[in-house]
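[retry 2/3] ADP-ribosyl cyclase/cyclic ADP-ribose hydrolase: previous attempt timed out, resubmitting with same input.
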Amino acid sequence: MSTQLDASSSSSSSPYRCTYHAFLSFRGVDTRKGFTDHLYRALELAGIHTFRDDDEIERGANIAAELQRAIEESRVSVVVLSRDYAASRWCLDELAKIMERRRNEDAHVVIPVFYDVDPSHVRKQIGSFAEAFVRHEERFKEEMGKVAEWRRALSDIADLGGMVLGQRYESQFIQDIVEEIRSKLDSKVLNIAPYAIGIDDRVRGINMWLEDGSNDVGVAVIYGMGGIGKTTIAKAAYNLNSHRFQGSSFLADVRETSEQLNGLVRLQRNLLSDLQKGKTKKIYNIDEGIRKIKDAVCCKKVLIVLDDVNHSDQFNAIIGMRRWFVPGSKIILTTRYEHLLKAHEVNTMFKVQELNEHESLELLSWHAFGQAHPIEAYIDLSKPVVKHCGGIPLALQVLGSSLSGRSIDIWQSALQKLCEIPDGEIQKILRISFDSLQDDHDKNLFLHIACFFRGKNKEFSITVLDNLKFYTVIGIQNLVDRCLVKINEDNKLIVHHLLRDMARGIIREESPEDPGKRSRVWHKDAFNILSKRTGTGTVKGIMLDLSMLMQDESSKTLFSGSNSKRRRVDDYDGNCSGRRRLGLFTWQLFSFSSANTTPASDEVDLKIEAFKKMHNLEVLLLNNVHFSQGFENFPKNLIWLSWRGFSLNSIPASLYLKTLVVLDLRNSSLQCVWKGTKSLPSLKVLNLSHSHGLSATPDISGLPNLERLILKNCRNLIEVDESIGDLKKLVFLNLKDCKNLMKLPTRIKMSSSLQTLILSGCSKLVLHSNMVATNQSLLTASDMKKDDCSSPNLWKSLLLWAVPSRNIIPTSFSVSNLPRSLRSLSLADCNLLEIPGDLSILSSLKYLDLCGNPIQSLPENIRSLSKLETLMLEDCTELRTLPELPPSLQSLLASSCKSLKRITNLPNLFKSLDTDFLHCKKLVEVESLFTIKPLTTTDIEMIKDMGLFNFKSIGSDAEVEMINYITNTTKKVPLQVLSECGISSIYLNGNEIPDWFRHRRMGNSVLSIIVPPHLNHRIRGLNACVVYARRPDIRRSAKYQNLFKVSNETKGLMWTYSPITIGIPKENEDMLWLSHWRFGEHDLGGGDEVRVSVEFGPELGHDLNLWTKELGIQLVYEQESSEDGKKHNFLAGDVSVSSSSYQMWTGKYFLCNNLNRAQKTQFKSSQENPSHLDSDKTKSPFLFLFEHDDVSQADH
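[retry 2/3] ADP-ribosyl cyclase/cyclic ADP-ribose hydrolase: success.
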């Protein structure tokens, strides 16, 4: 199991600050000048920084803000309970606040000190405490809730035990208190970074794992790149949970310590000292330490954290064997190495994600400005720093602290320096991962990827790097394991900006003063060594985008804090998309150096002779670079040549290309690629896309190993050479948007290896009728949205068929003529009124794209596609219904099907199916999921069951405005009944709960009842009525769901309901939400405590925030035998709220149809008790009754 440690919302937590070790609460008139003063001095002398309130001034009705803040920022609260402590309402307010924090934060330690009072007097409020409360109850008659809170706080703190003076001397008693506080601080609290922004969200998953109650010995790994906050997260988790264990130890800096003399032995000794409360034994070697650790952990449940582990030997030496540990023990490792331990040795993995932009700006602001946001004059300066740091807390902390208190000029200068020279402190931390690589092979592979392959498709990169003599597959995995490289969901190689800068810094160290002697050069340095001809045999790779250099130089752009965007020059895109734009630091790389300025375009004079000494050059990536003179000195060992904007009409015969594996000449001026036959025996990829002057492809028979030929958007291409039939390894041919291409070569049928043929946008192409028949693996694509190199599926030989644009589809076209081996079929935007031919013959089809077609229905035989996993129907605006779909379906995307009304028989509905029905504004039913019916067509008995007895008095023209979360639409409609999840709801205007709702509660507090027994009827449900309105102030909240919660506290059952629709009340008006909940036979019973609450979250995309004004509930009983002997079904499918389809874990049900699988998983992970057990509940009809009333009183 792997978990992402990232924030679920954009809001960050408030900074974690601990100003004091201890907060001292006491009654001044009792102990201020005696016992408390002596205790305060002893604590301060012991190095325990303590807050003591010396202010005798009357503080008003509540705790002063300073006192409240001091309580929140103290690790331990020491409460000196003396005879007259309860006589002070200020002391009681302090105590209530202290105990509230303890209830909310398990890590907060409270130490009661009973000074000349009996703990039982405090617990029971007798003696002097009783006398105090007589006065309080008389004085605070109107605030009895507060008095009850004081009583609870006193009872709770007395239950903690604490320290009793008894017959001891005060001096010894004080020393015992000091030692107790010291032990609590030593064992429980670790120092955490002063501003741990976002820590709550990132620790939550680990806390749940630590609190799961498992009897297994658990091992968790927290991993991520250097500086991302692994140690901070581990410390926070340790602080919050160490008290739950009988022993605990946090071993910091394991990697660094283990590298020192006897380092592992020292770590073993520290562990034993922590577990044995400071009792240390001599250890002379690792084996002896392991034996003693075994003895120490075999008899107590422990929590052990090993921070910064980089080798499994360290784990084994300190932890030993898991079977030694007491069940329930937990072990946490932090590391940069994802696969540090074998899979069977780890229970769960937590990957730490970068801070988001909002969190990053807040963290930077705390360090730079001492507040949660930038000073106004520095806002524009702060944003590029945040982008540069890329969400890495260490970088934000270092840069923020270094820039704190500096002038704008200093900020600008510092940012300019960062463009050229990365911060040394940050690089020192990041480089640990690089230095930990086991050999020079992996180090060089990382440097190559960081410089030339960022953002490139993984398979494409492997093709090139393998031919550069790297062992790429295993090498990339090693880099991924150490969090130096990531593979994103698009199968592209991702290297963090700071790691890219680190790689450049390492390369710069090869020759600080002479770029021509470095192994890899880019942009400005590349231009300099080419213009000055200083390159040497050391250079293996060059990247130069001359148009970008000239753009930045001609604009004379200096950093001014503006929001101007510049093209990224470092993110050379190896895919077929154009360069992306990003307002980051990279555009400044060439604007601040006066020593090596770039000339204007008319001054550029680069000569091929500049390559003369670069005989080891293997990678050459150029953009809009022009050379004069001949090509005799052009590099002879190139593997990858990308020369965008190649300015010649044809490739000169003198240009040596025989060693090339990839030749990319996109956006060239080529009219004739080469004359005759050219032998390129190693070439695997040829990309001539966007070469608008090209009218015909060359003879490519001399390219026997060519696998991919990309001719995208060659608008004047008329002919593809017949030599394509000679290529036995060609698997991919892209002719997209070759608008003047009239025909395909007849010999294409001889390309038996061809798997992908993209013809979308070839509007003048005439298809040969026999082309498909002669080649069963031939494929085409229509209006593909994936670039030829960017999709990993294309590199994995994904079979794809599609047809050209709609105006050239032959009338005889039929899917029956398509290859039966097809795995993916795209017929998007083909103007199809129906699917021509027998779709069922495509038995291997996994992906079917019918987007943008005016089809009204799908053929019934689509259910025969037994391997179909994805069905795309977006923008099929005439589609009205869907037939039964194959059980293999995993994804149904049907957004913007504006005519779609009903969907039946969806497979895998509650298991694995992901759906998208956004903007399907007419959708009113998904079978087994929900139905929406007008009130006028709803069964009368069903309406009465909801408690709406006077529904006939509601005007037939009554309308309400509704939000539908499944379709993300808002519209005004006649009154409707929503049926889903065993619940039926109706929304209508009104502000009074009907009289027959017996149990009520004002506001949004929890409504609790005890279910009374009923002799003749069994409980089958619950009716609820909510009065709600718009909140006058729009307040931000992390909750975006409307949650109705019902829990049976007695039986440990809970149902959380989030409806797919909600009524929108008018301004300054109220709305009623009536709902009927159908329960299983054993869900509710006499004597059960039932709690009900409603939480409204801000509506996404709407300027709307709702709040509960009043809540009413009424139990519903089933009649054992009705007069007519008939039973009516409440819902189609006869389901209850306890359907196993909605069960998240034992006794917990999440009744929600408007979230996808990932969102439901996230909801589940945010709840407690993550166990799961399916159950099947009995379904029964029911009727509405009042408790304790005669059945005849019910109108049913």
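[retry 2/3] ADP-ribosyl cyclase/cyclic ADP-ribose hydrolase: The longest helix spans residues 170-188.
[retry 2/3] clearing retry counter.
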